[in-house]
Write a structure and sequence with these properties.
By secondary structure, this protein is α+β, with helices and mostly antiparallel strands. The chain is built from eleven helices and 20 strands. The strands form five sheets. A five-stranded mixed sheet has the order 5-6-7-9-8. The chain has a five-stranded mixed sheet with strand order 18-10-11-20-19, with no helix packed on it. InterPro entries: HATPase_C_sf (IPR036890).
């Protein structure tokens, strides 16, 4: 299936309107690319003292049927053109065969939850069922509960992005841009099989691509300022899950960055104070401040900063944070966003007819628990684990006394021993995080159709160990 392209043409700042060959450029693109749509995108915040009625103050945005490196090269022969950006426009068919909104998915999940109440109402009729048919009736009720579990899980999965497909799409967009600019950049994307909610991802996707475009453009500017230097640049996009947070990292290597230039602009924009002392990180973070743009005159530079400001606003909206660091010629742009919907591999166990889940990410080892190995010292309890005294805590839940299994837990680089019912299972679980409780992270319906509470093991350990 053919794809349309978005092509943006930027003109040199010193070119006046009458010297821009609009018709020739338009005819060339229509002949070679077939123009579908054309828009003039005007720059915002042009200062009145800089305004010249004979200048364009805009770029042209085309949607065309095809575009390649050869066409881009021919466009560069127009002397008034400063830069051409292009990217693939994915059709709705390619994104999803059927578009379903997140709100619709949530409504479906709520309707599926009604099955629980239907089952509960039907169970009242058990006493009226003939004894010969009672077991059959109870089995049907169990199947109804299993249906609820399966429907909810399958429907909920619609909210999860196809991480491989999304990363391939981003990689293609950025590599096309690199190719069009004729740069020697090693671009790579690294990720594991993390599960990201579509609501979160689609809020940050466009801004993330803009930041990657910023990086490529910075490499382009660095190359032009050091025209005799044959430099190989590296650009990485890394995504991973750390505990209950999404970590996104953009790494640039080989780019030139003038920290003093940023510092002086931050002073000019009244973001920093000349009488204060700042670290490089403090100075770099000033580019995320919307006032920073007031210190800039160059429109291209303003556009780049607007991309940083835009992604910062999105990340703040998601309760996340951004950090920027520069060591030698390596700049790291780190984004940390807490997941609202969590996906974990759960260690499932029961105590006193109640079921609980612990995230297996915290479990280092399991072993036969012997209460004789617990000893007290200076008001703290310790467990003798492989000839080492590891601090021991009892979970703040009712527990049984026999058949105990020991768990060696690691949180914040410290070890703790706890004990649970020996009988256990494992299950992949998704749930909405409960921010209020210090003991429980949320509640979930398991494959066995039992409800289980997810223990906030890190918070419990911090609370009990002080």
């Amino acid at each position: 299936m053919s794809k349309n392209f978005i092509v943006e043409i930027y003109f040199k700042d010193d070119i006046e309107i009458e010297n821009i060959r609009y018709d020739e450029i338009n005819d060339f693109l229509d002949k070679n690319c077939k123009i579908i749509k054309k828009d003039y995108i005007f720059y915002e915040n042009v200062k009145i003292e800089q305004y010249n009625p004979f200048k364009l103050y805009s770029y042209i945005k085309y949607e065309v049927a095809n575009f390649d490196k050869n066409i881009n090269t021919q466009l560069s022969l127009f002397s008034e053109i400063k830069l051409v950006k292009s990217k693939t426009k994915l059709s709705n068919e390619e994104k999803n065969n059927i578009n379903v909104s997140i709100e619709q998915i949530n409504n479906i999940i709520e309707k599926i939850d009604d099955i629980y109440f239907i089952r509960k109402s039907l169970s009242k009729f058990t006493k009226y069922i003939d004894d010969k048919k009672k077991n059959d009736f109870l089995n049907e009720l169990k199947l109804l509960s299993s249906l609820k579990y399966d429907l909810k899980r399958e429907t909920f999965s619609l909210r999860i992005i196809d991480i491989k497909k999304e990363m391939n799409a981003i990689e293609k967009i950025i590599k096309e841009y690199i190719s069009l600019l004729g740069l020697n950049i090693k671009f790579s994307i690294n990720h594991n099989d993390i599960k990201i909610d579509k609501t979160m991802f689609y809020k940050i996707k466009e801004s993330l691509i803009d930041v990657l475009h910023n990086s490529v453009l910075s490499f382009f500017e660095t190359k032009n300022s050091n025209i005799n230097v044959k430099e190989v640049y590296t650009l990485e996009l890394n995504l991973k899950q750390e505990k209950y947070n999404l970590i996104i990292e953009v790494v640039e290597k080989g780019n030139s960055l003038d920290i003093n230039y940023i510092y002086n602009n931050a002073l000019k924009a009244n973001i920093l104070n000349r009488n204060e002392t700042y670290t490089d990180k403090d100075i770099l973070l000033s580019i995320l401040n919307k006032k920073y743009i007031n210190a800039l005159d160059d429109l291209d530079e303003k556009e780049k900063i607007m991309n940083f400001i835009k992604i910062n606003n999105v990340i703040e909206e998601l309760d996340g944070k951004i950090e920027i660091s520069l060591v030698d010629d390596i700049m790291r742009f780190n984004i940390n966003i807490p997941f609202k919907i969590l996906f974990i591999n759960g260690f499932v166990f029961s105590e006193m007819n109640k079921t609980y889940v612990i995230n297996t990410e915290y479990i280092v080892d399991t072993f036969e628990f012997d209460n004789k190995n617990v000893n007290s010292l200076n008001g703290y309890n310790y467990y003798k684990y492989k000839n080492n005294n590891i601090e021991y805590i009892k979970l703040p839940i009712e527990s049984e006394e026999k058949d105990r299994l020991g768990l060696l837990i690691k949180t914040n680089n410290k070890y703790t021993v706890i004990d649970v019912n020996r009988k256990h299972d494992f299950e992949d679980i998704f749930f909405n995080k409960d921010e209020k409780s210090k003991i429980y992270m949320g509640e979930v319906l398991l494959r066995t159709v039992k409800k289980a509470k997810i223990l906030n093991i890190e918070s419990i350990i911090d609370m009990l160990k002080g």
